[in-house]
Design a protein that fits this description.
352 residues; 9 strands; alpha/beta; 7-stranded parallel β-sheet; two-stranded parallel sheet
Length: 352
């Protein structure tokens, strides 16, 4: 009887939207052992608590990960500007890779996650659709570019293989994540319901009716990640991974219907400025529905909602490359958003 080769995964950023879905997918996939790494302490014996910004600590704790064959790198630390963000996040990846090397880990492949910022959308309107081989690249600093260069240099030295996945706004159900759009929409809907207000898109008429947007379901991304970690066609390649483009008007009315809310015309407003005024409404809802005692200002990142709902140019990634390479799975964005909101409602994280 031939033995099955067991792959050992380390998920950096295991408590994030991408990391949580990855751990769950790895746990239910035969042939994989998985452990997570996160800055925030966790109770599971399979979780490693580590601040990757600390090189000495990282080297010490990674002795526990000496069997790692595949690294899924979804860790991120915000900085005080593009230059600091670049320096910090490149150093974090370097510290982790050096720590695994020093631990003697038989690391085969690294799967790294980037976003549309790799195409320069944070600097202004970028030509859409976005292609993985777009050239020349935009002016940095950009930590996605720096991390990719780090992996390419190590691959050239024969230390590892790499693959890159480029999702966009990721749909998941992690509590307290700063970039969880499902939480923003679910909380906004609950406060609209509490006040008897229409569920009105808080962005511009143009964004609502004309602009093309895109998202990525965390569970679908996890399955794409296992493919990227093992497929020959993914070695040394970067792939966009998003679902079919949509206009917010279509998605917003679907969500309103699912939540039994009236979807009125868009009403532009700054969520970050306006929604803190509704703290008492949130507290009354939370008390009535016995929700966990989480400070309102920490429960929802309204500023992330402002960012997502204010884009007035098309965000559109071409998906031809990953399909030609052999990965075809996709999901319906509206269905994925509603599923993530419902999971948070069922868990008592969001009000109904």
């Amino acid at each position: 009887m031939s033995s099955v080769s067991i792959k050992t995964a380390l998920v950096a950023g295991a408590n994030g939207i991408i990391g949580k879905a990855l751990i769950q997918e790895l746990d239910r996939t035969p042939g994989w052992n998985a452990r997570g790494l996160s800055r925030r302490p966790a109770g599971s014996q399979w979780m490693i608590s580590c601040d990757l910004r600390n090189r000495t600590q990282t080297r010490e704790v990674l002795a526990r990960a000496s069997a790692t064959t595949h690294l899924f790198y979804a860790a991120y630390a915000p900085g005080g500007g593009l230059a600091e963000e670049d320096a910090v996040n490149r150093a974090m990846l370097r510290n982790l890779l050096d720590g695994l090397r020093d631990a003697g880990a038989p690391l085969k492949r690294v799967v790294l996650y980037q976003g549309a910022k790799i195409y320069g959308v944070h600097l202004g309107a970028a030509p859409a659709p976005f292609y993985e081989d777009d050239n020349p690249r935009h002016l940095g600093p950009n930590f996605y570019q720096s991390q990719q260069e780090e992996l390419a240099a190590r691959a050239a030295a024969g230390q590892l293989e790499w693959s890159i996945l480029r999702p966009d706004v990721v749909i998941g159900d992690v509590v307290g994540n700063s970039m969880n759009i499902a939480t923003v929409i679910g909380a906004f809907a609950a406060l609209c319901r509490a006040q008897g207000a229409a569920f009105r898109f808080p962005g511009s008429e143009r964004t609502y009716r004309q602009v093309l947007a895109q998202m990525t379901d965390a569970d679908g991304l996890a399955r794409a990640s296992l493919w990227a970690a093992t497929a020959d066609a993914a070695r040394g390649e970067a792939f966009n991974y998003v679902h079919e483009p949509f206009r917010w008007e279509r998605i917003w009315t679907q969500i309103a219907a699912s939540l039994d809310l009236e979807a009125g015309p868009p009403m532009p407003l700054s969520l970050a400025r306006h929604m803190p005024l509704l703290a008492q409404d949130w507290e009354r809802i939370a008390a009535a529905q016995h929700l966990p005692s989480v400070a309102y200002e920490k429960a929802v990142n309204w500023a992330f909602g402002d960012f997502v709902f204010s884009v007035e140019f098309d965000i559109l990634s071409d998906m031809g490359k990953i399909r030609r390479a052999g990965f075809h799975e996709t999901v319906d964005t509206g269905v994925a958003l509603m599923a993530a909101i419902k999971r948070q409602q069922d868990a008592g994280i969001l009000p109904r």
